[in-house]
Amino acid sequence: MPRDTAPSPAIRTVSWGRMEVEGLAPGKDFTLFPGGGREWDWARNGTRHSPGICIADVAELLEHGATAVVLSRGMRLRLQVPESTLAYLARHDVTVHVAETTEAVRHYNVLAETGPVGGLFHSTC
């Protein structure tokens, strides 16, 4: 698995339906990893609020070298995180943090200062 040594981008602001991330255009949902990120297109891997975040979504973070992952469940905690996704991360010895979006952003920014972190952020429900 390739390891990108570039830092993970900081999240500057988050509010309902909008996020601003260092080096990226503003957007609603983001996939972030060491060296960059992009808007999170749920249709790409078939992500829905339920069953939730897909293994393919988190696998991309690991491919970019993340050793810790932050998963946001949305502002109203509607986005689920299936046990299969958590088990996948555990099998890869990845530290995972699951939280409401504003808490997840705070946690991600702290981790981004000290090591290769990835995250999936949903800025609405």
From TrEMBL:
CC per GO annotation: cytoplasm
Keywords: Cytoplasm
SUPFAM superfamilies: MTH938-like
Intracellular or extracellular location(s): Cytoplasm
Matching InterPro entries: MTH938-like_sf, NDUFAF3/AAMDC
Domain of life: Bacteria
Primary location group: cytoplasm
Name of the protein in question: Uncharacterized protein
Species whose genome carries this gene: Halostreptopolyspora alba
